[in-house]
Design brief:
43% helix; six-stranded parallel β-sheet; 468 residues; 16 helices; globular; 20% strand
């Protein structure tokens, strides 16, 4: 009797899945993979889709969201996305992108994030519920392309919307792959066709067309200050997730061993691409030497030669901005470019620099961390507020002094404030709470979720339904 090998079983399963997808696609008139030749066609399809979506139940929505979670968290898909993103964009680390994609798929809130409020009394019953905007236009970055798409799709569809993506051109291939996967999963789950769409050739012109289109009722931008400003100037409801320059403060009461480990882990995570990652350190002078010593144990390498520090700063920053060529590169690549050989396993370059240095003032999004020596914690907090540049994004503090932690939290007013942990704890990776990759400091929504993509609607029934 012949035996059935694991490869034969996998092949049979793959054939069955492909057959189911093909049948489901043929049953959906107008269904597509979600990638359209032009923006007008994409928006028209998304507009039709969300109107059909309104006829679906909340149970349907939950099923569709689960289908997205399943396809986006499948191990082989998560690894493929991570590898393709690093290959296409030339930025970041595969293992860290795997963690980010998994978190986006499994920890982004769904329909459970849409509470109903109600009031009842002698005059009847009034409810306040969260309803969709319709078609949302979403602009996604090259730094976190797949994580942002997954996160946005789950939140926006949970709220009852359809979404048109305008991805960064340097992340086109991986974004198209992901959107096609999501659409295939939605088709099998029985969702209306084209709830998630994009264009074949992302461009500034296509983005402008999307922002100006009358059928796009809401705009969400995850990116730099330029695109956020454009969205907020569009005349439409806009959510802007802009730049950050997160400072990490370390005072004399901190657990220095833990602080050093957490700062290195946070600053080198995905080669410092997340806008939440530590971008500079302000430490009281009595702990700086020990802090650096402990950081070296955790994969940091200290640059001490002033000439090399200056050479690196000139290479990676220009006119107050990061040089794109070096964004998200490995620490070893950056060091080699200025003629410095670092030990194998080096994850982060550190350098003690003055406060006005580029390593402090510029959001580099590279595994380079400037360390500033200050006289006391009050000075550290003052300088941290200044270095954050009013972005209201993220800040970190390592301290056992509750009063100092409270003072910094009140002074800096960031959307995320992490106490005694790595920066990524603030987005649900090793910290409590849900995950998001659209952090809307400029427009005040904060860590976005499904409720941010919905309108508040009141429905009043007069003279009835009060049963008390």
């Amino acid at each position: 009797m012949s035996t059935i090998s694991p490869d034969m079983v996998r092949q049979v399963i793959q054939d069955v899945v492909q057959e189911v997808v093909a049948k489901a696609q043929s049953a959906h008139d107008g269904a597509s993979d979600g990638v359209f030749a032009d923006m007008d066609s994409a928006i028209a399809a998304a507009d039709k889709a969300w109107r059909q979506y309104m006829e679906c139940s909340m149970a349907d929505r939950a099923r569709f969201i689960q289908a997205i979670r399943d396809v986006a968290s499948l191990d082989e898909n998560v690894r493929y996305m991570a590898e393709l993103t690093v290959e296409e964009t030339g930025m970041g680390r595969v293992d860290d992108k795997i963690l980010k994609n998994k978190a986006a798929a499994l920890q982004t809130p769904g329909i459970e994030d849409l509470p109903t409020e109600a009031w009842s009394g002698d005059d009847g019953l009034t409810t306040l519920e969260l309803s969709p905007f319709g078609v949302i236009g979403a602009i996604t970055p090259t730094t976190n392309p797949t994580e942002t798409v997954i996160n946005n799709v789950i939140g926006m569809l949970a709220a009852g919307n359809s979404v048109v993506f305008s991805p960064h051109p340097r992340a086109t291939k991986v974004t198209h792959w992901l959107i096609r996967k999501i659409n295939a999963a939605l088709t099998v789950a029985g969702a209306p066709a084209n709830l998630v769409v994009t264009v074949e050739k992302p461009s500034i012109d296509n983005t402008n067309a999307m922002m100006a289109h009358p059928r796009v009722r809401m705009l969400v931008a995850t990116g730099g200050p330029g695109i956020v400003k454009a969205v907020l100037s569009s005349g439409k409801k806009g959510i802007g997730a802009g730049a950050g320059n997160p400072p990490a403060v370390v005072d004399q009461t901190a657990d220095i061993v833990r602080a050093a480990r957490d700062i290195v882990n946070g600053a080198c995570f995905d080669n410092n691409l997340p806008c939440t990652a530590e971008k500079e350190v302000l430490a009281v002078e009595c702990v700086v030497d020990l802090l650096k010593f402990e950081m070296l144990k955790n994969g940091a390498y200290e640059l001490k030669d002033p000439a090399k520090i200056a050479q690196l700063a000139e290479m990676v920053s220009k006119d107050g901005h990061a040089v794109t060529k070096w964004v998200g590169k490995d620490a070893s690549v950056l060091a080699e470019a200025v003629g410095v050989e670092v030990p194998k396993g080096t994850r982060l370059l550190i350098a003690e620099v003055p406060f006005d240095h580029a390593f402090v003032q510029t959001e580099l999004m590279m595994p380079i961390l400037g360390i500033v020596r200050v006289k006391d914690v009050d000075t550290a907090i003052d300088l941290a507020v200044e270095a954050e540049h009013g972005n209201r994004h993220t800040a970190i503090m390592h301290s056992a002094d509750v009063n100092a932690l409270t003072k910094m939290a009140k002074r800096i007013q960031t959307t995320i404030f992490v106490k005694n942990g790595p920066s990524y704890a603030g987005i649900g990776l090793g910290g409590e709470g849900y995950t998001t990759f659209t952090i809307a400091g400029p427009t005040g929504e904060g860590l976005t979720s499904a409720r941010c993509y919905a309108r508040r609607r009141r429905c009043a029934l007069v003279g009835g339904m009060n049963v008390r």
